[in-house]
Amino acid sequence: MGLAFALTSMLCWAVNIFITRAAMARMPAELGFVVVLAMNLAFGSLVLAVELALRNAPLTLHWEAAGWFVLSGVVGIYLGRRMLLDAVQLLGPSRASVLHTASPAFTLIGAWLLVGETLGAYELGLMAMIMAGLWCTQPSAKGSADKPPPSGALLRRAALLSLLTVAGFGIGNAFRGMAMRNWDEAVLGALISNVAALVCLLAANREWRATALRLRAGNRTGLALFALSGVATMCGTVFGSLAMQRIEIAIATLISYTTPLVVFPVSVLLLKDRDALNLRTALGAALVLTGIALLALR
Q1: How many domains does the chain have?
Q2: Which of 232, 234, 230 is nearest to 188 (CA)?
Q3: What pTM was computed for the model?
Q4: pLDDT tens per residue, range 207-226
C-alpha cells in the first residue's frame, strides 16, 4: 500500500509540472508561490473538514510531531522552494531540474539520523539505479534557453545554492517522515507545514501591498493555474506522507520524484515534444521502471 501511495504522490507532482509550466508562462513564479501556498491551505482545510466529518476516531494533537511538521514546512517548503527559484534564475531551468535527483540522498541521511532507518545493500543499489535513471531523464542544457554556466564567484554561489536546495528538500522530507511515524495525520500535518511556510513568507516579504496589487492585476488564467497547482501539490504532499508511514521514508521520497515516467510519455504523445525522447532518456526511464518494479517485488 505504501508503494501505491508513493506512486499516487508522483502522479500528483507530475500533473503539477504541466500546470506550473503553463502558469509560469502567464505569471512570475514568485507571485505564483503565494497563490500556491494560499490554495494549499484552503484546499487542505476543506479536505480536513471532510475527513473529520466522516471518521469516527477523534482528532488528537501530538505536539512533538506537529513540531516536526513545522520544521518540514520551513526547511522543505519555504527554504527549499525559495532556493530552487533562485537556482533556476542563476543556472537556468535545465540545470536546476537536476537538483531534485540528488535530494533523496539527503532524505536517506536524515531518516537514518532521525528515525534510525537503515536500508540494506539491495535497497541502496535499487535507489542508486533509480537516481541514475532520473539523472538520465533530465533535460540537457545543450541547446536550451539556459544561461551560460556560471564561473568564479557566481560558480561558488551556484554550488552553495545547489547544495542548500538539495539539502532543504531532502531534510524537509525526512522531518515529515519523522512526524508521520509518530502521528497519523497526513492532512493536518500538511496544513501545519504550509502554515509554517506561509508565516516565513509573510515575515520575509516587506512589500505585501505591492504584492497584493500585482496579484490583483495578474493574469486570471495564470492565477487559476497556480491555484490548481496548490491543489495538486497538496494532494502530492498528503499521499507522500501516507507512503512514508508504510514504507521507508527515503524510498517513498524517491518514488514520488519519478515524475519523468509520466512527463515524458505525455510530452511526446500529446504535446508532440519529440526532442524529449532519445536513447538517453529512454534508458533512464527503463532504469527507473526496473528499480521501482524490483522494490515492489522485494
Answers
A1: 1
A2: 234
A3: 0.85
A4: 888 888 888 888 999 999 99
